[in-house]
Write a structure and sequence with these properties.
alpha+beta, two-stranded antiparallel sheet, 4 strands, binds zinc ion
Amino acid sequence: MNDNRKDIDEEVIDIGDIVICDVCNADYTESNECGGFILGTWAYCPQCVRTKKFTMQEYARAICAPAWVTFRQLVLAVRNGDNTIRITNWKNR
Ligand SMILES: [Zn+2]
């Protein structure tokens, strides 16, 4: 039996309460700015939502927060306590 698992290396990193925009990498950890949304696995900060063009289908799928909820609160709520990111590397044969 061929075990391919040994060719996969996974690193799990706990990023705590850090909130970074997945598009522009701006740090919102200490920000109280409202806006932004979640689209798929990507968090779009308020600035990126204002400047990037989205299709109607993307708007329909986006997870938005009420106007009084900060981008930071939205991201942390969607994470639901799981503040880990996983980096998977496939080793060359
Ligand atoms: Zn951004």
